[in-house]
Amino acid sequence: MDARLGFSTVDAAVHQPHPEPVVRLRGFTRRFGANTIIDGLDLDIAPGEFIALLGRSGSGKTTLLRTLAGLDEVRGQDVEVPDSRAVVFQDARLMPWKPVWKNVGLGLKGDIRPRAEAALKEVGLGHRIDAWPLTLSGGEAQRAALARALVREPKLLLLDEPFAALDALTRYRMHDLVLSLWRAHRPAVLIVTHDVEEAIALADRVLVLDKGRIVAEERITAPRGERASFSARLREKLLSNLGGDDHGVIPFTPVLEAAQ
Q: Which of 30, 94, 107, 108 is the most exposed place for a label (fewest CB within 10 A)?
């Protein structure tokens, strides 16, 4: 790879060494009747890695996320995910009859208010601790959803198009917030998005899913905030991968093998 480029197309020879993955899928397949949604998928996610998953509607993104979140059964399949995981959806899914801090602490045991308050302050909602969810703006509701996820200190944080319904300025501010929280807590992150520019801005690695298979993978080596010089080229490349041409399945190398 030319280091000046800032990104590299990943193949079997280019994977970077990582410790043992927190997520490991081998030959994962999901069918609904005669329809194959995920087709023999192999995937590793390393501790602290930030991955963006792109794909057209119907490519299998939601099915994969539901699997990693533990919302769908994986009986008889080679799937390893950490018990400590959390999901933030496009809809904040706050309970309107509970104040914000109780939404954040939902399901926790013990003296939950101090933990909920600390999480809300971390996402910039220290002034909205006792507010009712229906009084929050869209950006504030998503901040509360992030606080609810991170108060659990997950090893795996799943983001399902969490900023799609926000205006552009709020979305950019949420990008900065997510990156600051990721740096502070260091979970592995998988964000599902339709926004190619969002994927380039946030991720260490961008995966393109099509017909239940990973058809492209780009590893971004340039620091965040210094990606403008190559973002147009990478955007064009990813959009080409999303265009539906038959690119085949890229070679897969487990992260532990790559480290040897």
A: 107
Average pLDDT along the chain, 260 residues, taken 10 residues at a time: 51 54 90 84 93 88 89 84 92 94 91 94 94 94 94 94 88 92 94 91 91 89 83 86 56 47
Q: Are 86 and 157 in contact (CB under 8 A)?
A: yes
According to DSSP, residue 178 is labeled H
Q: What's the DSSP call for residue 14?
A: T
Alpha helices in 61-159 (DSSP H): 61-69, 100-104, 112-122, 138-150
Close Cβ partners of 181 (under 8 Å, ≥ 6 residues apart): 122, 123, 146, 150
- CA–CA separation, 211 and 202 (whole Å): 24
Q: In what order do the strands lie in the sheet with 7-9?
A: 7-9, 213-220, 205-210, 50-54, 188-192, 156-160, 85-88
Q: Return the pLDDT at 13.
A: 38
How far is the C-alpha of 173 from the C-alpha of 175, rounded, in Å?
5
Q: At what angle do helices 138-150 and 112-122 cross, to 10 degrees?
A: 130
Q: Where are the alpha helices (DSSP H) in 79-227?
A: 100-104, 112-122, 138-150, 168-185, 196-202
The token duo for 57 is 């509607």
3-class SS at 211?
coil
Predicted local confidence at residue 17, as pLDDT: 54
* Residue 145 backbone zone (phi > 0: left; psi -120 to 50: alpha; other: beta): alpha
